[in-house]
Amino acid sequence: MKRVVKGKAWKFGDNVDRDSDLFAFQYVLESHSGVPLEKLAPHVLESLNPEFGVKVGKGDFLVAGKNFGHGKAHKEGIRCLKSLGVGGLIAESINKSFIRDALYFGLPMFTGEGISAQIHQGDELAVNMETGEIKNLSTEQALKAAPAIPHGHPLFPIMEAGGQVEYVKKKVAGLKNA
């Protein structure tokens, strides 16, 4: 895992729901009918910001308030965020079910009380992916957030590998080389 990732902040509010906000259920159904997620990814978060899925850059960060990712446990929205190259999620709090699913896909997540008030739309951020230290390059402010899956946590190797599939691939490769 790259230690420091730089990217622009995309700001969202509290209670971002998986079904209506992150990735509308109509697109979940389309993905189940065979439409590739890469074609549907531009629709991620479109109800909150129609430009997000089209203009988000590789390494950019979602910044949100409290209770990010509540709702039904559809994983397609997380997969879209990963396919768009989102660097991670910074929020005041993240739904536990979302954390579990985002871990599976290796989406880095950070939480910090009051963090969303200190970051504005378009701010340039440098985030230490292991410690959660954030430098707001636009304001020169140093911020502190905690990784949802911290270094040393038993599940950290999965996050570090980029998700569960990549973790298993590396384990199998290690067994073949042993």
- What is the terminal-to-terminal distance? 23 Å
Number of distinct helices = 8
- Strand count, sense and closure of the main sheet? 8 strands, mixed
Calculate Rg over CA atoms: 16 Å
How is this structure best described in words?
With 178 residues, this protein is α/β, with parallel strands linked by helices. It has a single domain (4-177), classed as Aconitase, domain 4. Helix content is 33%, strand content 19%. It contains eight helices and eight strands; from the N terminus they run βααααβαβαβββββαα. The protein has helices spanning 18-22, 25-32, 37-40, 52-55, 76-83, 96-105, 156-161, 164-177, and strands at 4-11, 61-64, 88-91, 109-111, 124-128, 133-136, 141-144, 146-147. A hairpin with a 4-residue loop joins β6 (133-136) and β7 (141-144). The longest helix has 14 residues, at 164-177. It is globular, with a radius of gyration of 16 Å. The two termini are 23 Å apart. The mean pLDDT is 93.
SSE blueprint:
Layout: E1 4-11, H1 18-22, H2 25-32, H3 37-40, H4 52-55, E2 61-64, H5 76-83, E3 88-91, H6 96-105, E4 109-111, E5 124-128, E6 133-136, E7 141-144, E8 146-147, H7 156-161, H8 164-177
Parallel strand pairs: 1-2, 2-3, 3-4
Antiparallel strand pairs: 1-5, 4-8, 5-6, 6-7
Key phrases:
178 residues, alpha/beta, Aconitase, domain 4, eight-stranded mixed beta sheet, 8 helices, globular
Could you give a quick summary of the protein structure above?
By secondary structure, the chain is of the alpha/beta class. Helices cover 33% and strands 19% of the residues. The protein has an eight-stranded mixed β-sheet, with no helix packed on it.
